[in-house]
Amino acid sequence: MKTNAPTMKDVAREAGVALGTVSKVFNGITVGESYRIKVETAAQKLGYQVNQYARGLRASKTYTVAVILPGVDHPFFAALAQHLCTALAQRDHRMLLYVTASRPDMEQLCVKMVRQNRVDGIIGLTYNPLQIDDDLPFVSIDRSFAADVPCVASDNYSGGRIAAEKLLELGCQRLAFLRIGSANPSETDKRGDGFEMVCRTRNIHYDAIRLKDGEDLAQFKEFFRSHMKGGKIDIDGFFCSTDLLAWRIQQMLQELGIRVPEDVQIIGFDGIRRFGGESLYCSTIVQPVQKIAETSVDLLLDKDRANAPSLICLPVAYAPGGTTRE
Amino acid sequence: MKTNAPTMKDVAREAGVALGTVSKVFNGITVGESYRIKVETAAQKLGYQVNQYARGLRASKTYTVAVILPGVDHPFFAALAQHLCTALAQRDHRMLLYVTASRPDMEQLCVKMVRQNRVDGIIGLTYNPLQIDDDLPFVSIDRSFAADVPCVASDNYSGGRIAAEKLLELGCQRLAFLRIGSANPSETDKRGDGFEMVCRTRNIHYDAIRLKDGEDLAQFKEFFRSHMKGGKIDIDGFFCSTDLLAWRIQQMLQELGIRVPEDVQIIGFDGIRRFGGESLYCSTIVQPVQKIAETSVDLLLDKDRANAPSLICLPVAYAPGGTTRE
Predict the structure, then answer these.
(1) pLDDT tens digits for A150-183?
(2) Are residues B79 and B173 in the same domain?
(3) Statement to judge: residues B98 and B126 lie in one domain
(4) Does B99 sit within 8 Å of A82, measured CB to CB?
(5) Residue B283 shares a structural domain with residue B200
(6) Would the pTM count as exceeding 0.80?
C-alpha cells in the first residue's frame, strides 16, 4: 500500500469539515447537502479511495453478494450471471461468482468458501440444498428451500399452459410432454404440470415422459418409434422442458424422417439464442432472465426481507422460432 | 455476527498450543506438521471459520481477484468465466466478476468499483485500456497493454495459418479473409496476418475484408455479389475471424443460392459449441479456453511476476464442423 495515499483526515482538512462528517459521507449516513458536496469534492481532488474492505469491517457490511450457479457455460446461466452482475453493480454491490460445474467436489468447495468469506447475502441456483447460516440473507432461483428463503422463478406453470394452448391453436391434436432434468424437486417441474392441466381440462390425448439427468435420451427415440406406422408418427405436438431438449428431439425426429414443423410441431422452454443474441433455436417459452436477476437482487438487498413472499413467479411469453407453423 | 462463535483463542485452548501458532496456521505460515494437525483438528471440532475479511486486512491479501469481461452472454466469454472461476477456486481464491456489457457507463462503473475494493489482482479482457494502479498485478487476455502487463492469448497467428493451409489442403483455390471486430488493436488481429502470410508465401489469390464493430455486414454480401457470375461465386474458401461471423456468412451465402460446403468451404475461429457443449457451429480453429484461464490465474498469483513473459500464446487446433469437406 502506498504510504502517501490520502487519509480521511486529509479529506477533512481539505474540505474544512470535521472528521466525523467525512466518515458519515463515506458510510452513506445523511449529512447536510453542502457538507456532502464539500467532502466529495475534496475526496475527488485528493484522489481519496474509499477502502471498501475496512468499510465492510466497520459497518458489518461487505457490499458483496455471493452468486452460486451450476456453471455459466450453459447460455441460460450465462445470461443470468450477466444480469445479476449488472443489477448488483447498479446498486453499488459487487458479485462473487461461484460455479459448481455440477461437480460434487466443487459444490463442497464453494459452500466452504462462502462460509469462510463474509458476504452480505447469497443468490443461488443450486441442485442440492446448501448448508448456510440462518442469519445470512439467501435468495434462491428456481428452487424452493423453505418458507423463509424467498424463491424467484419464471411462471413455469403458466409457461406449460401457454405451450399446450399454442400447440392446440396451431392445429395439433395429439400432444406429448418430454422432460429430462435433475432428480431434485424444483420450480421447473411445474412446466409439465401446467401442460398436463390443459390437456386434461380439454380432454386432449397426451403422453408425458420424464427422464432424470444421466438417463439415456434414446428412450425418447424408442417412444417415437412405438408411435410410428408407415413412416408417420401419430403425435403432432411436442412440448420439451428446455430448448436444449427441443433441439435434440428435433434432430432425433429428423433422423426418423419426420419433418419439423410440417409433420410435428415443437415448443421448448428458456428462450436461448444462438451466440447469446442471435436467432432462437426453436419455438419456445421465453424466460424473463433480466427480470429474474433484478428481482432476486431487490429481494436480497431489501431491508424489509421479513415480509418477503416465499415465491415470486415472473411472466413468460411464447415466441415462434421455426419449429412451429407460426 | 454470533457472539458465541469460537475465536482463535478458543482454538488455541482446544489444541493446547500458543495463540501465535494458531495464527500462523490460519495465515499459511509454516509450522511443525504435528502443530498444524492439532490446530486444524481443533478448528474443525469447534466449527471455527477463518474470517477471510479480517485475514485480508492483516495480511494485506484479500484472496480475491477481479475478473473484468465484456460480458458472459457470449459463449466464448462464458466459457472463459467458467474456467477462471474454477481455476481460482482451486487455488483458494474467489472471483469478483465485473461485466462491462460493452456499455461505456458500465465500463466506468466497473473501473471505479475495482479501485474502491481491495483485490489481489485483476484479470481483464477489455476493449479499452483501463486506468489501474501500477502496483496492482494485472493479467490481460487477448490484448497487450504494456511490457509489464503479461498478456495471455490463443496463438492467433498460427490459427490463421492453419486455417489457410487447411482450406488449400481441402482443394480451395481462391481464398478470402473476413473480419468484423473492435477498432482497438488486439491479439486477435493476428488471425488475419497468419492467414495472409500463407496466401502470399504460396502465391494464392486472396481478398481480405476487415470491418469495424458497428459497420454494416451487408458489405460482405455486396462483396459476394461482385464475385458472382451466372449464380456461381469465384471464391471457394473463406476464413472468418469468429464462429459467429462464419455462421452469419454461411447464412448470407445460402441466401445467394451458394451451397456450403459443396460450393464454398468456411472456417471460423473460437470453437463455440451449441448450448455450451453440443456440436460446433462450423469448421473452426478451437481456442484452448481452459488453458487460457489457468495460465492467466497462474501468472497473476505467481510470486515471481517480475520475470513473466509479456505475451503467452497457447496452441490452437483445427476441428471440422460441417462447413468444410472434411
Answers:
(1) 999 999 999 999 999 999 999 999 999 999 998 8
(2) no
(3) yes
(4) yes
(5) yes
(6) no
